[in-house]
## 1
Amino acid sequence: MHTPRFWLRCSRCDGETEFRQSARCACGGSLLVEYDLDHVARALTPEVLASRPGSMWRFREMLPVERDESIVSLGEGSTPLIPLPALQRALGVRAAHVKREEQNPTGSFKARGFSVAVSLLVEHGVGKAAVGSNGNAASALAAYAARAGISAHVFLPEDCPGLIVDECRGYGAEVCLVRGLIQDAGRLIEEGREAEGWFNVGTLREPGRVEGKKTMGLELAEQLGWRLPDVIVYPTGGGSGIIGMWKAFREMKALGWVGGEAPRFVCVQEEGGTPLASAIAGGGGAASAHASPTGLRVPSPPDGELVTRIVRESGGTAVAVSREEIQAAQKGFGALGLSSSPEGAATLAGLRRLREDGWIGPRDEVVLFNTACAMKYLPWTAPAPATVVASYAEYRDLAAAPSGDPALPASAGTHAGMHPAPNR
Ligand SMILES: Cc1ncc(COP(=O)(O)O)c(C=O)c1O
Ligand SMILES: [Zn+2]
């Protein structure tokens, strides 16, 4: 019998199932991709990798796409890992590096996840995708869907940075603002999914995005000469990047590419929105939503249990940093010549805090993840009116209105330059 190259296993009940485009198990756990690692080992070695050109698809055999023709790529991955000697000296750590994820297409690391997720949409013949997002996932879906000829429907919190809203439109997505937060956007999609024919590519709803983020961990080991750092400081929203990198370290260990201890994960969130940081620290009930409108603000992470377990088992910790600390860290990165998003800067703020209190010691080698660039969050004065809805019912009624386009607010109809890009 033909053995599949990859399948799914539940991170909670351990149940296995054949590969499908769902990351939810009946038990409530997350389904993650498992690979036939013997097959991977025959096709891929560090030597083979060294001969392949820069792209996250260099790790092709460790990504769950069957056919090369399905791959939707815009040049994602192979981002630089650069040393930060001045910071190293200032903080007194053995080594500090930053992984420059802001250099990905669409200016954020979300490109990795959507390159895989949209490739899977192509492979499985899906033509209409929707995402609820704080912004960067939405623009990544919009770009990759445009590349693939798939229609993208993005639902963003009302206070999403204006530049990102217009970025999504620039890629031709249907854009709708939702009264509330990211989980309200996700709920609207679930309510309308069947009627609209949307495939929901939200966090941990399908297996591709975690696999794409896994490539950050694979690249990190390769860039350090097939070793792993002591500490990874990661700006955490839903936590799928932590899940992805944890998978990367396990798979590389099983392949014999790296040995030794896996890194301790540090989950950084912004004060006022720290459900994961609080859970990791052993507290509960921190689902408040007063943090700034960035990718860190995810009051109801889809699988907090798994992220908490991974961080704890790694010997890691969590830290909540203030808006002021993040702003100071953006200046700190700037002084090193680096443009950082609030999320990326939060990792520097977290490092400073943990070095001060001694959790990170002088012998530690630390890697920060700068997940997006500063420009995405700059004040945006261009007129960007958009429909704001509170529910799927409201969305549906607007869609049925004479303009027939919920992305086209009636009040914006006459303003030149204010129209969203037409839907496909
Ligand atoms: C720039 C940026 N950094 C970090 C995150 C959080 O990522 P994760 O969902 O992997 O925790 C997001 C999510 O929106 C983001 O946009
Ligand atoms: Zn299960």
Note: The radius of gyration is 21 Å.
## 2
Amino acid sequence: MGSIANIGADQWLAAASYRRTVYQLKGTSSASDERVREIIEKVLSFAPSSYNTQPVRITLVTGPKHKQLWDSIITAAQPVLKSISEDVWNAMSPRFEGFKGAYGSVVFWESQNTIKESGETHKSAAHMFPEFSDHANGMHQILVWTALELEGLGANLQHLNAIPPVEAAIKKFLAVPDDYKLKAHLNYGDEVAEHPEQPQKLSFSETLKVVS
Ligand SMILES: Cc1cc2nc3c(=O)[nH]c(=O)nc-3n(C[C@H](O)[C@H](O)[C@H](O)COP(=O)(O)O)c2cc1C
């Protein structure tokens, strides 16, 4: 049995392993905006970052604003993807419409000002802070993602920063400070179908070595 949380590692791992990539989402959320906000606040209150420098920023977008956000993403992405080929656009467009059909977005940012300041405060590790920031962001992402699914929702993680004009459109729509850099975008909502099965993983002989 664990200490203060009164759960053991197996229970925590069982909860963590429940998280899946869920693409089929409804435009509803059985968890209230207030509850999702509370979950995000809890994660922000304890998740780690290097030297506790806290470079992670989060925007919660719900209901009609989520749809409008996706409209601005689609508008910005369309010319870029079509310029690659009609096929690329035709493949991506239904995916984007699916994401728009969800209920909400949790958008994860990096505060570049914080990274700069961290490098000045901790000079010997200055070159590491961009990478540390990525690690910290991923830790926040997995915690929020897992908690939302344990709350009964489905969610999928997207990276619209792959298309630079889209990142600019998201920044403009959400009116975040200039120094924010987009890191990830978690779409969430009630699940349409059964919670997905866990995908197959490599064998431990390939991924783990114990030296003792
Ligand atoms: C760092 C990272 C980036 C990912 N980027 C995307 C993405 O851009 N779009 C997407 O649909 N899924 C993305 N995923 C989800 C993975 O495809 C998914 O986690 C993986 O296939 C395992 O499935 P599971 O999430 O159900 O365990 C990402 C996952 C991670 C950890």
Note: The mean pLDDT is 96.
## 3
Amino acid sequence: MRYAINEKKERVEVSHSGEMAKCEICKSNVKGRKGEQRIKHWYHHERKTIDCDDWHEPISEWHLKWQNLFPKKNREVTITRKKISHRADILLNNGLVIEIQNSSIKFSDIEKRESFYEKNNLIWILNGNNLANKSILTEDIFHYKYKLSISIPKVFEFVENYDFKKILNNILEDTEIGYLKSEKNLFEIKNENILIFKFIEDEITDFHLRDIQYKYYVACVYERLYEQIELEKFRKLIEIEYGSINEKICELRLIKKYWKKFIDKMRYPIFIDNLNGINENEIYYYSKNKIIDKKNFIDHYLKYT
Ligand SMILES: [Zn+2]
């Protein structure tokens, strides 16, 4: 561990090897160790190598770098719950715990930590250098060139309880139009009543024919729901357009190699530092597939110190 309590009851780091202090959790004597090989730390010399916090892990340079971004009072803070104590890597004033994970961790330990810190709320920061060094973040670029839009009337005064959303859902579920929602295509609903499909290639060669077909499908759905009430009028209100567009969409994709399965067992937000494919001033928000500016990320959490 990084901090222990000295004779003056101050939380201190090791200043020289052999220095004595007391553990904040179990109050037993701890000895300072400072050498070339390992980062200076306090250890429970009376208990041999066993730390009273059984989640204890060796301190790493990377670990220190992250902890040092936060004030001392927020680093390695003891949290006690039901007489069990653990040292959180970083505890913010709003209760959030930041766990800085440099090495692999067992599924069962992830579960234990997440449930212990549940009341606090938690985020994980993983060291990509150690935990994902064969994986790489890349960007896929999709170029959409064609757009089909199908617009359904939002109101139709001839039908009592007319429900355009119901028609829309039925179109997507039960007609050939729904099949346009393939993996390669982009699909969205605009203004609640317009179905939009974007294509990379020209998928609708005979638009005139498709126009008739799609209007027919939509009208069939309408007929099924509302019988033939003003069916022709309804059909005329359907608007279908097809044309070229020029839209590029970049999507981040993490290529996982020798991926550590424990990472996907974490239920709380995961951020990966030192990941191949991002800059040093960025951090990858794995749970949301987003790159975040590291400074913004840190500043956001520093508000709670
Ligand atoms: Zn102890």
Note: The longest helix spans residues 207-226.
## 4
Amino acid sequence: MRRRDFVKTPLIVAGAAMVGKAGLVSGLLGAGMAHATQRAGVPDIALNNGMKIPQLGLGTWTLRENATACVRAAIESGYRLFDTAQMYGNEKQVWEGIKQSGIARKDVFITSKISTNSMRNPPQRDSIDKSIELLGGEYIDLFMIHWPVKDRIQETWVTMEEYVRKGLIKSIGFSNFNPHHIETLLKYAKVKPVLNQIEIHPYHTQEPNVAATRGYGIAVESWSPLAQGKVMSDGAILGIGKKHNKSAAQVTLRWHIQRGLVVIPRSKNPKHIAENIGIFDFELSRDDMAAISGLNRSERVIPGADPDNFSW
Ligand SMILES: NC(=O)c1ccc[n+]([C@@H]2O[C@H](COP(=O)([O-])OP(=O)(O)OC[C@H]3O[C@@H](n4cnc5c(N)ncnc54)[C@H](OP(=O)(O)O)[C@@H]3O)[C@@H](O)[C@H]2O)c1
């Protein structure tokens, strides 16, 4: 497919479609209609290849053996999206949680990412095969390039496309891509990238990258959506929470949702896991949204996590 075809692809990033008149999320609950209650009202975002991704999921970075229990708790609370990566070393434990929960494979959406190390050490197929095996042996819903490793992106992307053709990976995307990385990739990509997972939270709102990514018809997902816990003590966010009778975590996650972003908060605490999905019964006002966006200071939570200059 040519680059301009990507650009023309209508992206139904569902921000506008999600919030109904009453401010409650109606969403695009596809086959999961019967799961509506269990999913705690989590809407889907339409991807450019016809797939749908739940708009809220569980992040699993730093979870190890406890990932299994966290995933189980999350499924009980209504989560259906799980984000892991080769670099997290917990794909097996994440899958174990899904398996133990007894939920059908088709009812969960699993995302994983190829590590920078695997990108630098071809054949990348070995590590991709291993991810598929660790994640249940059937398929991965979305597989991403974790970081834009210089001079290794094209070979990795072309390899990932092979897996899409074989049906072993349903969709492919990337993480930590700036617009210039996307522009270059689109010149040779034959399979459309569906999503860019980037750092977004109230202290790093990333409006330009979000707009540019969407301009290519690619959905955007927020990593470290709670600024790794920093938002919890923010006076402005706590103040907005008081008005709505919601916690700082809930207000912040709702801000991501109303921006139309996919969001993947991480927690090892079952109470927080349940709290973080309780965000589909209230709506932030335009002023609330602007006040939270106004906290931006373009501050990264991980030192050195600059997509154009990282050391891992
Ligand atoms: N692609 C990338 O390069 C990249 C980079 C970083 C992260 N990610 C992904 O994004 C996910 C989320 O980011 P993150 O893990 O960096 O951090 P995060 O989700 O922004 O914050 C996690 C922190 O917030 C706390 N927390 C969560 N819910 C809470 C609540 N309701 N009340 C109080 N504290 C709460 C957690 O503590 P408790 O455990 O005690 O609840 C934990 O310390 C990752 O797990 C990973 O899947 C991707």
Note: DSSP finds 13 helices and ten strands in the chain.
